Amino acid sequence: MDIDNKTLIATRTHRLEWILKEHYHAQGHGLVQLISSCDKRLPHDMVDKLRLVALIKHKMSHEKNFHIEDINSFVCVCNECERGLQPRSTRMIWRFAFFLIFGVTAGAMWFYFANWQYLASRF
User: I need a labelling partner for 101 at 20 to 30 A (CA). Which of 28, 90, 93, 115 fits?
Assistant: First the structure.
Protein backbone atom coordinates (compact mmCIF):
# COMPACT_ATOMS: atom_id res chain seq x y z
CA MET A 1 0.00 0.00 0.00
CA ASP A 2 1.20 3.46 -0.82
CA ILE A 3 2.55 5.51 2.10
CA ASP A 4 0.27 8.43 1.20
CA ASN A 5 -2.78 6.17 1.39
CA LYS A 6 -1.65 4.83 4.77
CA THR A 7 -1.18 8.36 6.06
CA LEU A 8 -4.56 9.40 4.70
CA ILE A 9 -6.32 6.45 6.32
CA ALA A 10 -4.57 7.05 9.63
CA THR A 11 -5.33 10.76 9.75
CA ARG A 12 -8.96 10.38 8.71
CA THR A 13 -9.64 7.64 11.26
CA HIS A 14 -7.82 9.61 13.95
CA ARG A 15 -10.14 12.55 13.25
CA LEU A 16 -13.19 10.29 13.60
CA GLU A 17 -11.80 8.90 16.87
CA TRP A 18 -11.38 12.44 18.18
CA ILE A 19 -14.97 13.34 17.23
CA LEU A 20 -16.31 10.23 18.99
CA LYS A 21 -14.32 10.97 22.14
CA GLU A 22 -15.08 14.69 22.18
CA HIS A 23 -18.75 14.81 21.19
CA TYR A 24 -20.04 11.35 22.13
CA HIS A 25 -17.85 10.64 25.19
CA ALA A 26 -16.70 7.33 23.74
CA GLN A 27 -14.35 5.16 25.80
CA GLY A 28 -11.72 2.74 24.60
CA HIS A 29 -8.68 2.34 22.42
CA GLY A 30 -9.14 2.25 18.69
CA LEU A 31 -12.06 3.02 16.49
CA VAL A 32 -13.90 -0.29 17.02
CA GLN A 33 -13.99 0.08 20.82
CA LEU A 34 -15.00 3.72 20.55
CA ILE A 35 -17.88 2.85 18.23
CA SER A 36 -19.03 0.02 20.50
CA SER A 37 -18.94 2.19 23.60
CA CYS A 38 -21.28 4.83 22.21
CA ASP A 39 -23.25 3.12 19.43
CA LYS A 40 -26.57 3.81 21.22
CA ARG A 41 -25.89 7.57 21.05
CA LEU A 42 -24.73 7.58 17.43
CA PRO A 43 -26.99 8.28 14.46
CA HIS A 44 -28.24 4.90 13.25
CA ASP A 45 -26.96 5.24 9.70
CA MET A 46 -23.46 6.16 10.90
CA VAL A 47 -22.66 2.97 12.82
CA ASP A 48 -22.28 0.78 9.72
CA LYS A 49 -20.19 3.41 7.94
CA LEU A 50 -17.93 3.82 10.96
CA ARG A 51 -17.48 0.05 11.20
CA LEU A 52 -16.47 -0.01 7.53
CA VAL A 53 -13.87 2.70 8.17
CA ALA A 54 -12.63 0.78 11.21
CA LEU A 55 -12.35 -2.42 9.15
CA ILE A 56 -10.28 -0.67 6.49
CA LYS A 57 -8.00 0.83 9.12
CA HIS A 58 -7.60 -2.55 10.81
CA LYS A 59 -6.71 -4.26 7.54
CA MET A 60 -4.29 -1.48 6.66
CA SER A 61 -2.57 -1.86 10.03
CA HIS A 62 -2.35 -5.65 10.21
CA GLU A 63 -2.24 -7.01 6.67
CA LYS A 64 1.07 -6.55 4.93
CA ASN A 65 -0.24 -6.65 1.36
CA PHE A 66 -3.51 -4.81 1.90
CA HIS A 67 -4.49 -2.59 -1.01
CA ILE A 68 -7.52 -0.33 -0.98
CA GLU A 69 -9.31 -0.41 -4.31
CA ASP A 70 -10.85 3.05 -4.28
CA ILE A 71 -9.36 5.58 -1.89
CA ASN A 72 -11.84 8.23 -3.08
CA SER A 73 -14.83 6.22 -1.85
CA PHE A 74 -13.06 5.80 1.51
CA VAL A 75 -12.61 9.57 1.73
CA CYS A 76 -16.29 10.09 0.82
CA VAL A 77 -17.41 7.72 3.58
CA CYS A 78 -15.15 9.53 6.06
CA ASN A 79 -16.60 12.88 4.98
CA GLU A 80 -20.14 11.56 5.44
CA CYS A 81 -19.24 10.27 8.89
CA GLU A 82 -17.68 13.58 9.93
CA ARG A 83 -20.71 15.54 8.72
CA GLY A 84 -23.12 13.14 10.38
CA LEU A 85 -21.27 13.13 13.68
CA GLN A 86 -20.95 16.89 14.06
CA PRO A 87 -23.31 18.17 16.73
CA ARG A 88 -26.48 19.52 15.21
CA SER A 89 -26.53 22.48 17.56
CA THR A 90 -23.38 23.85 15.97
CA ARG A 91 -24.98 23.76 12.54
CA MET A 92 -28.17 25.28 13.91
CA ILE A 93 -26.27 28.15 15.52
CA TRP A 94 -24.53 28.96 12.22
CA ARG A 95 -27.85 28.91 10.39
CA PHE A 96 -29.38 31.20 12.99
CA ALA A 97 -26.41 33.60 12.79
CA PHE A 98 -26.64 33.70 9.00
CA PHE A 99 -30.39 34.31 9.16
CA LEU A 100 -29.94 37.06 11.75
CA ILE A 101 -27.25 38.87 9.74
CA PHE A 102 -29.27 38.54 6.55
CA GLY A 103 -32.42 39.74 8.33
CA VAL A 104 -30.76 42.82 9.83
CA THR A 105 -29.18 43.72 6.49
CA ALA A 106 -32.46 43.27 4.62
CA GLY A 107 -34.28 45.34 7.25
CA ALA A 108 -31.75 48.17 6.98
CA MET A 109 -31.99 48.14 3.19
CA TRP A 110 -35.79 48.25 3.36
CA PHE A 111 -35.67 51.16 5.84
CA TYR A 112 -33.35 53.20 3.61
CA PHE A 113 -35.35 52.48 0.45
CA ALA A 114 -38.63 53.33 2.18
CA ASN A 115 -37.32 56.57 3.73
CA TRP A 116 -34.79 57.70 1.14
CA GLN A 117 -36.77 60.72 0.00
CA TYR A 118 -37.15 62.00 3.55
CA LEU A 119 -33.52 61.33 4.47
CA ALA A 120 -32.16 62.88 1.27
CA SER A 121 -34.09 66.14 1.84
CA ARG A 122 -32.76 66.45 5.39
CA PHE A 123 -29.05 66.27 4.51
Answer: 115
pTM, two decimals, is 0.68
- 111 vs 99: CA distance, rounded Å: 18
Domain of 97, in residue numbers: 87-123
CB 38 within 8 A of CB 24: yes
CB 21 within 8 A of CB 34: yes
The per-residue pLDDT for range 73-97, each reduced to its tens digit, is 999 999 999 998 887 666 778 889 9
pLDDT value at 53 more than 60? yes
45 and 80 co-located in one domain: yes
d(CA 66, CA 68): 7
